[in-house]
Amino acid sequence: VEIGDNGAGIAPDIQDRIFEPFFTTKGVGEGTGLGLDTSYRIVAKQHGGDIRVRSQPGDTRFEVLLPSR
């Protein structure tokens, strides 16, 4: 499954941190930083899959990979 958007993109220097719990680029009170962490834990830890990200300005894509069972 691939999910994408055409927003500002995710800066290369933070792409390796976006799945960390409580990591956010939003201001105080604007986000918990748990959405991608929770998604990753469900996909990777509970189902043995992976989430990959590719991003550039105007094109960010998350690829969700799940094993066949």
Describe this entry's structure for a reader.
The protein is an alpha+beta fold and 69 residues long. The protein has one domain (2-65): 2-Layer Sandwich (Heat Shock Protein 90), CATH 3.30.565.10. The chain is 17% helix and 26% strand. Strand 2 and strand 3 (59-65) form a beta hairpin. The chain is globular, with a radius of gyration of 13 Å. The model has no long low-confidence stretch (mean pLDDT 95).
Structure at a glance:
It contains one helix and three strands; from the N terminus they run βαββ. The chain has 69 residues and is an alpha+beta fold. It has one domain: Histidine kinase-like ATPase, C-terminal domain (Heat Shock Protein 90, 2-Layer Sandwich), CATH 3.30.565.
CATH superfamily: Histidine kinase-like ATPase, C-terminal domain
* Average predicted local confidence, pLDDT: 95
CATH topology category name: Heat Shock Protein 90
From the spread of the alpha carbons, the general shape counts as globular
Low-confidence stretches: none
Major β-sheet strand ordering: 1-3-2
- SS-based class: alpha+beta
Assembly state: single chain
Report the top-level CATH class.
Alpha Beta
Helical proportion, percent range: 10-25%
Strand content: 25-35%
